[in-house]
């Protein structure tokens, strides 16, 4: 979906898809009809929107289309990309698209990444999932690294706050971690000295605020392993030091964090939009 716009991209999925998984339908919700479509030989892995572009991601190729007339503008060959990883800037003054390539950012393959809205910073995680690294898009330098943990984990989502002062990471460990970033925000004075005596190229940050999502609205003794195996969470920053966490099981959390002392987040709101178990049951006859 393009922000709050009425335009959506629909791609078939699941065991019984209503639409072919190798086709993208551009849906106008105001008109309640399809206004365009793209068909491919291979399955579509992801679709990204910005106000002037539509990006369609296949496993080995990315297609860039003009938003207004759906004209093909560019084709980009990529490495194997089964997750459909793709980042896109949304600032009209910058045009940045990020996809898997041959540049080495981690010791193992990239599993997840996100761009800032202006496309100038890139946060990445590997298949190992222990480190999150932040890169400067303009010159490719790495200027910060944060450690999520020492155990291997699958990273579900990475998000950056609009001010680029905070980074949130969700994983299959059933937790969400928030890290403070050292990124220089436009309009701020540069720091007088490096933190912890480290080189200007990278700052290593170990402290974090964490939320054990399995302990919210459920029995922690039984739901922890269940959520690790089944539930995926994605995170986004809200206003006034809050984080919104959405689970694939239909759960929604809004939590606040202390931007000075850190520690455990405080649960402000919990809503369950879907009852997965009930939905999967056959209706009584």
From TrEMBL:
Membrane topology, from the record: Peripheral membrane protein
Record's keyword terms, sorted: Repeat, WD repeat
Localization in the cell: Preautophagosomal structure membrane
Gene Ontology CC, one term: phagophore assembly site membrane
Repeat in keyword set: yes
InterPro entries: PROPPIN, WD40/YVTN_repeat-like_dom_sf, WD40_repeat_dom_sf, WD40_rpt
Pfam families for this protein: PROPPIN
Family note: Belongs to the WD repeat PROPPIN family.
Name under which the protein is recorded: Uncharacterized protein
The species this protein was found in: Dioscorea zingiberensis
